[in-house]
């Protein structure tokens, strides 16, 4: 048994029960190669990540991509903020992430971090190329009282958000809220990195959606992260509807104000084992510190 991976997975499950920002679990350090502290690659990486502090290098959509250096010393970087973030909080998130990613991956030539923003760097060209590699999945332990109805409403919402995100032009982001019952709502968010095509965005989100019926069927909340896209749904508001979002098709209420998530159900040994089996199917793990 791979005990280090099992330990990370166990911490991943605990982080969903008690959400907290743990950068060490948010970061994936790749094993494609290492660099030395005083190398040209290290200097190029430092320069590239430092440029995130310059607001002019981040587009109005919260997207940043660039490369620096040549041959074996060339570094590629890609960064993306969640679509409802303002540029100030976006830049702050990326600055914190750039410090965290090099702290947790001090020698690796490739790393990935996802929190309320996404940051990735590599010695290989990762720009304008879709990568739907599975990163992590987390879900709440409580179930819908009417799983069939909940699943039907959720599927319609996620399919609609997928089409809207993929068709978003330079801004491949969509979020919405729909009625589940007269008293309950479902909030959903889907996003792709803007450098990939409409077709690739749709494929990435479709791959992410396919994990839900397999591992989170009937769950009241879940999040799936892939390198080029991510999605999340909850029964409480966790995002701000964008001011320029298209009119929702299913009569949502006024834009919600983000709030703390409801307490999750206490894990029983059986529930924890089931969650652990789901997590073990991943090839890598990270703490989904969504809030």
From TrEMBL:
Q: Which UniProt keywords apply?
A: Repeat, Signal
Domain Gnk2-homologous residue range list: 23-126, 132-238
**Could you tell me which Pfam families the record lists for this protein?**
Stress-antifung (PF01657)
* Ranges of compositional bias, category Pro residues: 245-264
**Renumbered residue ranges of the record's region Disordered:** 244-269
Is Repressor set as a keyword in this record?
A: no
Q: Which residues form the signal peptide?
A: 1-24
Instruction: State the name under which the record lists this protein.
Output: Gnk2-homologous domain-containing protein
